[in-house]
């Protein structure tokens, strides 16, 4: 909206300069094939439904009461599934909130934090919001992280693994090298997509006092609609996150979010089966797109990053949209010849491939 | 927890100084009479249950999708109930988050913000968190706000109305006087408890370009477990809140919170009946406590602020606790001879009165 200078006087001066994050579109259109925001194509565990039903018992009377501000049951469920202690867990209203708290808790330093030039586009937004200095580190020409670049003075490091929107994973030995080279900096590994085939750094938490691992239930647990994210780290880092959280909002997790996420973490069998289905569908999708001439980066995520050298993919995205299929196109340097495509069910992926083959590229 | 200086080096320097908010206790004890966090004694509207049931249909498949980042349906429901436009509404994860965004959006100024010395104890916490300068303005000896004190240079004003923990309401003419005296400052009226008998400033929003009214569903709508708060203001102020929100967390409202809150706002009849019941119970409770020798401040909230001149009320609170009744005691200057007691059902209030009369004060 257009706000007059006169009315802008009410805004905090620093807020007038903010450039907020723009999330992937959530169109309110029926029968759309939505492959633009990396949602899981399968419903959450059936145990989630049971857990929410339990809250509704007795006229949902329990809703009149505040939730547990510490979400202890949820921390316990995550700790058990991740094989760490409850004192290693921090939870928040989606991993976006957890990341916001991470930036405030650790990254407001004299030195700039380091992150890749092509990565989650919320990082510069958080940085501006909290006054964090930043330095972007270019990925190489294959969109890979070069560990040597992360051996310079810094106020912290954040690495998305697998990276987004590129889908490429970094191995644990490379992550250990970054951790060891930066003993006085907090190194955050943002693992939003880790469950689709990459190696998690959670097992390194006991070994490195400077490591924070961040995960979400939005992708691999089919709970994007619920807003539950978490961080895993040693207790002296969790304490900083709790201090920040309790200076911002004491009760960020509502009763439904806590109960539903607990149920999801308690159903490991369902979780693993769903991840395997997505991985299998991804491999089929990649093969089919390569057959159509696409170049697809090696993905360990529930999305792929694909280019079609002969075409303007921005136009391609617009043509797909006309056919009721939405994918994500970033009109940014270095990646404006790529589309980020969420892996759907085999049927959904086939619709995408068929539409490309029979209509758009025919 | 005790963190060594050596491990503190990982924290952002400013975070090491934070003094987080301490919420009212949420004990996990059965059969406790919990009159300490101003929760409503009645369940939410039955329509809330139906709305959540609808999300669970089809294996809760919709949970795999992100919620509407703008929570448009919720804004529409609030706008209709409050008789304002959708463009006047901002929503957040509880009014605590809404208030946090308000502090960042408007109060990071050269001049200090003004608030009462006795009021919601989260205000100084937000201020420290965002680097907001503050000046506390003493209430008078009757715990009332003196409007003249809010006519000095400032970077913003926040008034809780009715005030907490004092329960005393400020009239709209006094609020208009504050608004008119401060045409270049944002004046926030925090109306968490307004539905229990005070006058809301929402009707003034059209008239004052510097007014923000903040409300919550936690008290009068029995949805503390859900975390839904909102602000009402002219669009140029809402835009600042949206810029802040979208620099922090794009999707703060989960699907359950949106749907359940919408259902609550659509059931005005239930809402009004519940508020009237709480008000009636409050008046009975006040009369019964006065009979026992308590002095009770004139309450327009769902809690009362009461002292017993002959007793140390801190000890009284401990004795009540031994009897399974929790009330809130603030060991702070000026109010350490008062207890904040949430209004329960008539039966619950009677248990409190009987316990005082027959056991503690017998």
How would you characterize this protein structure?
- The structure is a homodimer of 362-residue chains.
- Chain A is α/β, with parallel strands linked by helices and 362 residues long.
- In chain A, helix 3 (46-60) runs antiparallel to helix 9.
- Chain A has helices spanning 5-8, 13-16, 46-60, 72-82, 94-106, 123-130, 172-181, 235-245, 255-265, 268-291, 313-322, 346-360; strands at residues 33-35, 89-92, 113-116, 134-137, 157-160, 187-190, 211-216, 229-233, 295-296, 303-307, 325-329, 339-342.
- Chain A folds into 2 domains: 24-44 and 271-360, Alpha-Beta Complex (Aspartate Aminotransferase, domain 1), CATH 3.90.1150.10; 46-266, Aspartate Aminotransferase, domain 2 (3-Layer(aba) Sandwich).
- The first copy, chain A, is built from 12 helices and 12 strands.
- In chain A, the strands form 3 sheets. The first copy, chain A, has a 5-stranded mixed sheet with strand order 1-11-12-10-9, covered by helices on one side. Chain A has a 5-stranded mixed sheet with strand order 2-8-7-6-5, sandwiched between helices.
- Chains A and B meet through helix 2, helix 3, helix 5, helix 6 and helix 8 of A and helix 2, helix 3, helix 5, helix 6 and helix 8 of B.
- Chains A, B: It is an enzyme of class 2 (transferase).
Write the layout of secondary structure elements.
The structure is a homodimer of 362-residue chains.
Chain A: H1 5-8, H2 13-16, E1 33-35, H3 46-60, H4 72-82, E2 89-92, H5 94-106, E3 113-116, H6 123-130, E4 134-137, E5 157-160, H7 172-181, E6 187-190, E7 211-216, E8 229-233, H8 235-245, H9 255-265, H10 268-291, E9 295-296, E10 303-307, H11 313-322, E11 325-329, E12 339-342, H12 346-360
Parallel strand pairs in A: 1-11, 3-4, 5-6, 6-7
Antiparallel strand pairs in A: 2-8, 7-8, 9-10, 10-12, 11-12
Helix pairs in contact in A: 3-9, 4-9, 5-8, 10-12
Keywords (chains A, B): Amino-acid biosynthesis, Aminotransferase, Histidine biosynthesis, Pyridoxal phosphate, Transferase
Domain Aminotransferase class I/classII large (chains A, B): 31-356
Subunit structure (chains A, B): Homodimer.
């Amino acid at each position: 909206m257009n706000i007059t200078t006169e009315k802008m006087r009410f805004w905090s001066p620093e807020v007038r300069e903010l450039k907020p994050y723009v999330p992937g579109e959530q169109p309110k259109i029926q029968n759309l094939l939505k492959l633009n925001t990396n949602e899981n194509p399968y419903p959450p565990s059936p145990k989630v439904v049971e857990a929410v039903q339990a809250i509704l018992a007795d006229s949902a009377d329990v809703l009149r009461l505040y939730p547990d501000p510490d979400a202890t049951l949820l921390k316990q469920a995550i700790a058990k599934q991740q094989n760490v202690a409850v004192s290693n867990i921090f939870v928040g209203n989606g991993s976006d909130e957890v990341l916001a708290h991470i930036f405030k808790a650790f990254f407001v330093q004299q030195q700039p934090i380091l992150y890749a030039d092509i990565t989650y586009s919320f990082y510069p937004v958080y940085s501006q919001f909290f006054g964090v200095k930043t330095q972007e580190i270019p990925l190489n020409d294959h969109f890979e992280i070069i560990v040597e670049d992360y051996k310079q003075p810094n106020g912290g490091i954040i690495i998305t693994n697998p990276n987004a929107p590129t889908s490429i994973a970094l191995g644990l030995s490379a992550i250990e090298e970054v951790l060891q080279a930066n003993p006085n900096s907090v190194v955050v590994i943002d693992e939003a997509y880790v469950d689709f085939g990459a190696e998690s750094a959670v097992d390194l938490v006991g070994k490195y006092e400077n490591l924070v691992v961040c995960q979400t239930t939005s992708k691999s647990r089919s709970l994007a609609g619920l807003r539950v994210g978490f961080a895993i780290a040693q207790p002296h880092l969790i304490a900083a996150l709790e201090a920040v959280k309790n200076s911002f909002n004491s009760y960020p997790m509502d009763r439904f979010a806590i109960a539903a996420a607990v149920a999801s973490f308690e159903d490991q069998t369902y979780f693993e089966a769903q991840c395997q289905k997505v991985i299998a569908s991804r491999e089929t999708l990649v093969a089919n797109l390569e057959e159509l001439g696409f170049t697809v980066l090696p993905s360990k995520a529930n999305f792929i990053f694909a280019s079609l050298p002969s075409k303007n993919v921005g136009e391609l995205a617009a043509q797909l949209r006309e056919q009721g299929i939405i994918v994500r196109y970033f009109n940014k340097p270095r990646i404006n010849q790529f589309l980020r495509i969420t892996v759907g069910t085999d049927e959904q992926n086939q619709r995408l491939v068929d539409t490309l083959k029979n209509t758009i590229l025919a």
